[in-house]
Hints:
Elements: H1 15-21, H2 23-26, E1 48-51, H3 59-67, E2 73-78, H4 81-94, E3 100-104, H5 110-121, E4 129-132, H6 150-172, E5 181-185, H7 200-204, H8 215-236, E6 242-246, E7 250-251, H9 259-267, E8 284-285, H10 287-299
Parallel strand pairs: 1-2, 1-4, 2-3, 4-5, 5-6, 7-8
Amino acid sequence: MSSATLPTFGFSTTAEEVVDALASEVTGKNGTRPIVSIYLADNLTSCTVLITGTSLNGLGFETARAIAKRANLVIITGHNAARLQLSADAISKDQPKANVRTLVLDLSSLAAVRKAAAEVNAYSEPLHVLIHNAADTNGIYTLTVDGFESQMAVDHFSPFLFTKLLLPKLLASASTSWVPRVVAVSSEAVYMGPGIDLSLPSLAKPAPGSPQMEYFVRYHEAKSANVLFAKGITQRSGGKIRAYSLHPGTIFTNVHEKEANAVMLKSVGALKEDGKPNTEIFKWKSIPQGAATTVIAAFDPRLSGEGFSSSISHIRN
């Protein structure tokens, strides 16, 4: 199937529908080796995808579940080994033929990031796609073990370091039919503030009560950093890596169930007093619909060669 005949994805498209629609494209062109594996006569081909932040009832989990339907190996991460295994078990139950590997990754510690990267670099499999989905969502001012404000550290500093340490492995997966991809799940919150103060004291450890620590301002800054991060990779790699950031839509996930987040979201009317989504103000996507944007950024050939990073992909709220 040529790019011209690929379907148009919309608001209600799910992640699994995207994986199925792109199947013939991601198997490679002109007889080249497939990038994402399809079960043909039970023979697998090679594709490895790593996704951070894959807890149940979240976007990362649904992204992993959909991709695992066709990828040779999906690596899922989380800081809690027991909860991470629950996600792996759920994917395996839904996709019995899926090859899922767990990786304990604590993004609140740079030492832990280095340890996890070393483990990935020791894998025999290549790494074709790296998806940064994890984020600090507790809504409370805290510092990491390295002394950084946790939201910026988990959402940007650690993903930056993790990507840098995995760059050789990503670059090694390149072929005549594939350019490695890095995907950062951002948010339309990039439009909800003044931008990022790039001075280190503000960026790394803003004082409690400072403008940067207002709930939505700090989230805006962290998500803006995701966009700049993806744009920087695209520009500095000279075309050797394609990086994209995206807004997945407004989605009710496990993030909204956390008390601190719920209080703030109720205050602006996003959630009702009972904690349920306020559909009178926002048009909400389901989790499978929200995860579709990530899958598009990871595999849609229509993004190839564009050399840009955007907070809006083919699907937007």
